[in-house]
């Protein structure tokens, strides 16, 4: 909990910064998600009902309440990507990773999600892995990228 | 064309105050500080600048109203949530020339007497948030933010970057304010409007990234000069985002008055793979979808309005004729279903049922009754939803139905002319 | 007052500034349907059922939260409005678990009425979003698949009660009202007050049904089944059978209970009197001996749990007295068996309560003596009405019945335990007599009566200023305790009831179908209790002859060994 305390302190132990605190906690969680006991701790420290905190973390798409893979692979499904072939990227990933959107691969490396636009429409179809955005993809190119992550060769 | 917004894109180190100043930055702020507040607002009014986030409210009027409010403290807030599919212009400003935004907000703060400002940037732009954060820190070091800005006693203004966490609805201004306060981004009842009662229940001046970024230029070179770059009804330039099935995708700064055809064909190089343009989805996901026949409309708030179209955020998604209008609609509706905040019935349940109804078309199980319900439900969402998200979510539906009704009817009969829809429900028909 | 002229459906009307369209329409007898709206409690303007047309304005606007302005022209039932309303109700109904015929709220459901009135005869959509499991972990039962997301319960829980165990979670069509991590309410800081049930427009919230256990006991020849009815039940039960709120139906209720097969019909009013003897004694002791003050009442189990969760520093201020319900059980299984010559193990005690938290209280570990639970089953006023209907008893036709001795006689003081300020007044009546050593005639302490959230008074008795305060609703209790914590107030004695208005507005009382009349209903029920009080032969607890007999023949002195063992308890910081 020392880590959580430190983050809370950095954000002034303020309710107003709940979202900022949670984003930071998720970043340092190592599970790409918000551990239950951390959330309870934050609620208690900020003197907020836990139900209210839960309301916030389930509202925003970026938060996970269950542990996720080391890399979250987001396939954009919004219109510009949709009309330039996002569907084939998703099919490839589902097949290669053997998971459906929302699921994590057996080895815990990838969590696949379909996301709304992340602003890479000029290089659609696009995929985001962690913070890194990959564009102008074809299933082949994406497969290569995913493999580089699996094998630790990526530079993202 | 002399560029207003994108002149420095890619030419300077984005977080370097020195390079920004060397490229003509901070002239606007200095000039503002030598002007009467009302004169500065007058300049913005003359500029004929309309809010670039999508609502197209005249910025000068907005600032004049906010200035007249006596209550305080006042807050400057920037909407950098840019969640609108097909929109990536703010990403360029924030990532390549954040100082024009920072300067714009500082000018606002000087006029309004605001001491604090927030730049709300979507969580998906984490790297860009760091650039903006660094730019703010550097501006503070150089005396362009913080206490006694540029040596002016009592001119204090601090800026903070606040991250979103993945919610399109936070682009709605009251939802954005809720989100800055650390809450779920569900819109507030209006009135009261945020200009009176916004962040922390205080008067709040909220504009889009692009809007703020026009301000330094307007003050520096004059509102009239800015206005003349555009048309009689729409001053200045606009960042347009070309995406979809078009050759040269990207952000283009264009003067108002250029036609959509010029943008798509002359700048954008036309449709990819030698296909034909089927329709354009303009202004973002909640904008209109219209065919080739309207492409000669000028990009100008007035002309577009006359044609029943809204410019929105400036997103131009080009869709070629290999795509099915109904399938495209399904994709659009899924977006709103995903992004509805859930607060009001028409949007929460309506977006869900629209997807369900449209799916009946793509599966080939729809009936005329479903078609009528689809249209009726869309109307109710438009008239009765709580906020702009629900009110405009049916726009692509209503426009696609208007221009491609035949395709919807074909789907009722189990046929998809593009072959995109599999018609599992009426196999063999 | 600034007046505003508006026209609604062609009729001109002048209304004060800040009036909503909904209120202005009501003045003209135009009923605009609403669902989420609860004035002062929940005004999100989110269900959109009340949308109307306003001339010159784009789109439709919610009448509930839109204020009138000069010259406004409103149309409340145009074809656009009717189509929107119909579409909206269809949307709500389509995602609602439509088990109407087997729903607790059948015929009292606001959604059912709205659909009926607005011609929802068939639904155009199939399928629903699954919103999670039925929560039967505690006395409050939640069915998220019946929830219409109006948010009333969320507002009541957080704003009125300051509890906040439920909130909206997720978004869009997946949005739901739930506890954190969708856990059962029983494991949460829920105080079981049941105010969420009362305000729910549909059957998404209800109480755990304990009638089956009561029926089973009644049918078991081995058991001696006795029943107690709380003060507030008699002035509300009638509403279930068509009587006006506040009508005293005690006589018919007694007959109905006898017909249902209870061996003895007793009264919680009796043990309320008993509580006063013990609590009055405790107050005087604490004042005289420098004990912890203020003394705070402990009759309301919702309040007790609230205090145990949120105000650990006040646990020692709580009266150690068990609540009247529990005191009744304790004597019904000790004193009564001795006198009636029955085996205490065979005595089955049923409580009829206006309260859902009483179900929780009865199951608390502390609430037993020598291995015997004080109370065996608790049913609410609503559940009793259900049993009466199931038994085919024509309530209105019943003759009035009489209570049984020796736990059935009560004073006016015991009666007013059912409303806010009543416990305080009852205690003052007894404390005043004890301190002055006289039987005083002036016994109405009007300063502590009323419906405001917090009331304070200083009462001079025998030359001593006793500072008292009354709080109703745990949200108001919070405010009061925060004031004390901050050192801004000091009292000798505080009465807290967990629900606003007191037990008469408890979570187990009949559902008020037109919830805009809630305040009037509360006032009528309270008046009903004061009317009984006025008509009572004895209006002071210590003058109740059965109480006097209980002490003389069994308990001895108030607070003494036997009384302490049976009638007092302790609390835990949670």
TrEMBL record, chain A:
Top-level EC class: oxidoreductase
Bound cofactor: record note: Binds 1 [2Fe-2S] cluster.
Keywords, ordered alphabetically: 2Fe-2S, Iron, Iron-sulfur, Metal-binding, Oxidoreductase, Ubiquinone
Cofactor (UniProt): [2Fe-2S] cluster
Entry binding sites for [2Fe-2S] cluster: 76, 81, 117, 121
Leader sequence segment: none
Oxidoreductase recorded as keyword: yes
Keyword set includes Nucleotide-binding: no
Gene3D superfamilies xrefs: Glutaredoxin (3.40.30.10), NADH-quinone oxidoreductase subunit E (1.10.10.1590)
Source taxon at top rank: Bacteria
EC number(s) per entry: 1.6.5.3
GO MF, one annotated term: 2 iron, 2 sulfur cluster binding
Record-linked InterPro entries: NADP_DH_HndA-like (IPR028431), NuoE-like (IPR002023), NuoE_dom (IPR042128), NuoE_N (IPR041921), Thioredoxin-like_sf (IPR036249)
Family to which this protein belongs: Belongs to the complex I 24 kDa subunit family.
Name this protein carries in UniProt: NADH:ubiquinone oxidoreductase 24 kD subunit
UniProtKB/TrEMBL annotation, chain B:
MF terms (GO), sorted A to Z: 4 iron, 4 sulfur cluster binding; FMN binding; metal ion binding; NADH dehydrogenase (ubiquinone) activity; oxidoreductase activity
Domain NADH-ubiquinone oxidoreductase 51kDa subunit iron-sulphur binding: residue ranges: 326-371
SMART domains from the UniProt entry: NADH_4Fe-4S
Enzyme class: oxidoreductase
4Fe-4S found in the keyword field: yes
SUPFAM superfamilies: Nqo1 FMN-binding domain-like, Nqo1 middle domain-like, Nqo1C-terminal domain-like
Domain of life: Bacteria
Entry's EC annotation: 1.6.5.3
Keywords: 4Fe-4S, Iron, Iron-sulfur, Metal-binding, Oxidoreductase, Ubiquinone
Family: Belongs to the complex I 51 kDa subunit family.
Protein name in the entry: NADH:ubiquinone oxidoreductase, NADH-binding (51 kD) subunit
Originating organism: Ruminiclostridium cellobioparum subsp. termitidis CT1112
From TrEMBL, chain C:
Record bears the keyword Protease: no
Pfam families to which the protein is assigned, alphabetical: Fe_hyd_lg_C, Fe_hyd_SSU, Fer2_4, Fer4_Nqo3, NADH-G_4Fe-4S_3
2Fe-2S ferredoxin-type domain sequence ranges: 2-80
An example Gene Ontology molecular-function term: ferredoxin hydrogenase activity
EC number: 1.6.5.3
PROSITE patterns assigned: 2FE2S_FER_2 (PS51085), 4FE4S_FER_1 (PS00198), 4FE4S_FER_2 (PS51379), 4FE4S_HC3 (PS51839)
Alphabetic keyword roster: 4Fe-4S, Iron, Iron-sulfur, Metal-binding, Oxidoreductase, Repeat
Boundaries of every 4Fe-4S ferredoxin-type domain copy: 138-168, 181-210
UniProt keyword Iron present: yes
InterPro entries with a match to the protein in the record: 2Fe-2S_ferredoxin-like_sf, 2Fe-2S_ferredoxin-type, 4Fe4S_Fe-S-bd, 4Fe4S_Fe_S_CS, Cytosolic_Fe-S_CAF, Fe_hydrogenase, Fe_hydrogenase_lsu_C, Fe_hydrogenase_ssu
Domain 4Fe-4S His(Cys)3-ligated-type: 80-119
Entries under PANTHER family matching the protein: NITRATE, FORMATE, IRON DEHYDROGENASE
Protein name according to UniProt: Hydrogenase, Fe-only
